[in-house]
Write a structure and sequence with these properties.
The protein has 448 residues and is of the alpha/beta class. It folds into four domains: 145 residues, Alpha-D-Glucose-1,6-Bisphosphate, Chain A, domain 3; 96 residues, Alpha-D-Glucose-1,6-Bisphosphate, subunit A, domain 3 (Alpha-D-Glucose-1,6-Bisphosphate, Chain A, domain 3), CATH 3.40.120.10; 108 residues, Alpha-D-Glucose-1,6-Bisphosphate, Chain A, domain 3 (3-Layer(aba) Sandwich); 75 residues, 2-Layer Sandwich (TATA-Binding Protein), CATH 3.30.310.50. It is 38% helix and 21% strand. The protein contains 14 helices and 18 strands. Strand 9 and strand 10 form a beta hairpin. The protein is globular.
Length: 448
């Protein structure tokens, strides 16, 4: 069982274990030892988001890598999917991204990509952990003359901009007015020029990071801000990225939210019409709305369901050869273009569909009828395994028995935070409210 790596890398409170400069240095050394070896100079792409703690971790990881003879290609603030892309395109042995994604600025994390741009498998993460926790890394290192070099890659931003635009073949977006919320995160200087260079009129917001305001009342976690600006300026759509730009949430011209389920569905239907949807299948997680599955099946599209986490979606997509999948939260994976969720590329494909169909976003997103659903999330004092509890499992069983096939509930701990997440979905709003209240009360009583 992994002790450091969660579902999305190593994550925690910045400057507290495990997100300390001391451990970050060991991460650099261990990654070099496991993925690159200590002989010869091999390249590692290193990016970060806009958190103030990123400077501290960047320097520590760089030191660890250099001490093992690796060359570091530092790309600065950069979307997570851009780091994955650059790892592949620059022939690096791996890519490392310093980010806590949608978490607040007080957190940070470390994600590692293999040379093919995909996240590391569990077996490799365990191997890196073994090196970090083994206590002998401090003794490892190359002779002084073999220490690696660090380079600041000045054109990394431009490389990704051209790659992203190329995913829709530089289709003109002229005539579209967009609100773009960059969450004061990694895409603040990259996303606006992409949409502007393609001809869209862009009203940008949350593009002034100060190291502490990433995801703070903005971005994909707060789409209501984007919606207000769309209505104020009469925009055609709003686009909200999260802190590392691997997820996206839209809103239509009326300011109504268009989440990941609707994005996946509308683009799957578009791919199906163009005969580009591999095996007529999409891959989603158990958090996706039952309305999406019903709509897809009615259109002859098969839906495969995985555990929560984009890594599980990607694993299933790779195993099955599927090319469209994602999460309700806005992680959308187009395997034809990217190896991880990419908020910017997802947004470009939605805009491409709007331009080519001539239809507004609200019409395109109206293909499904949403089941009433509520997600409750709150901090817990401890993550006691659910099967070791008594009251909460009994309430879960009662809920599932009452809802039958007309609804469902999912109760799980967050893979990246000390939180529990409770989802209830049913055909009747009253049932959702009743059971979310009962389950939440039980969880608070037993876990806090």
């Amino acid at each position: 069982m992994k002790k450091l790596f969660g579902t999305d890398g190593i994550r925690g409170r910045a400057n507290s274990y495990p997100i300390t400069p001391e451990l970050a240095l060991l991460v650099g050394k261990a990654t070099a030892k496991v993925l690159g070896g200590a002989s010869g100079h091999k390249r590692v792409v290193l990016g970060k988001d806009t958190r103030i703690s990123g400077y501290m971790l960047e320097n520590a990881i760089t030191s660890g890598l250099l001490s093992m003879g690796m060359d570091v290609l530092a790309v600065g603030p950069m979307p997570t999917p851009a780091v994955a892309h650059l790892t592949k395109s620059m022939g690096a042995v791996c890519g490392i991204m310093i980010t806590a994604s949608h978490n607040p600025a007080c957190d940070n994390g470390i994600k590692i990509f293999a040379e093919d741009g995909f996240k590391l498998p569990d077996s490799v993460e365990l191997e890196i952990e073994k090196e970090i926790l083994g206590g002998k890394l401090a003794e490892d290192g190359v002779p002084g003359e073999a220490i690696g070099k660090a380079y600041r890659i000045e054109d990394a931003r431009g490389r990704y901009i051209e790659f992203a635009k190329g995913s829709i073949r530089n289709l003109s977006l002229r005539g579209l007015k967009l609100v773009l919320d960059c969450a004061n995160g990694a895409a603040y200087s990259i996303a606006p020029p992409i949409f502007r260079e393609l001809g869209a009129e862009v009203i940008e917001t949350a593009v002034k990071p100060n190291g502490l305001n990433i995801n703070d009342g903005c971005g994909a976690l707060h789409p209501e801000n984007m919606g207000e600006l769309v209505r104020k300026y009469g925009a055609d759509a709003g686009i909200a990225l999260d802190g590392d730009a691997d997820r996206v949430i839209f809103c239509d011209a009326a300011g109504n939210e268009v989440n990941g389920d609707r994005i996946i569905g509308m683009l799957a239907l578009s791919f199906q019409r163009e005969k580009k949807l591999a095996s007529d299948t999409v891959v989603v997680t158990s958090m996706s709305n039952l309305g999406l599955s019903r709509a897809m099946k009615q259109m002859g599209i098969r839906v495969e369901v995985t555990d929560v986490g984009d890594r599980y979606v990607i694993e299933r997509m790779r195993a099955g050869g599927f090319n469209v999948g994602g999460e309700q939260s806005g992680h959308i994976i187009f395997m034809d273009y990217a190896t991880t969720g990419d908020g910017i590329i997802s947004a470009l494909h939605v805009l491409k569909l709007m331009k080519e169909s001539g239809k507004p976003l609200a019409e395109l997103a109206g293909f499904m009828t949403v089941f009433p659903q509520e997600l409750c999330s709150f901090a817990v004092a401890r993550k006691t395994p659910l099967d070791e509890l008594s009251l909460l499992p009994a309430e879960i069983a009662a809920c599932r028995a009452a809802l039958g096939e007309s609804g469902r509930t999912i109760v799980r701990y967050s893979g990246t935070e000390n939180k529990i997440r409770i989802l209830v979905e049913a055909e009747a709003e009253a049932d959702v409210k009743h059971w979310i209240d009962r389950l939440s009360a039980a969880a608070r009583r037993e876990l806090n």
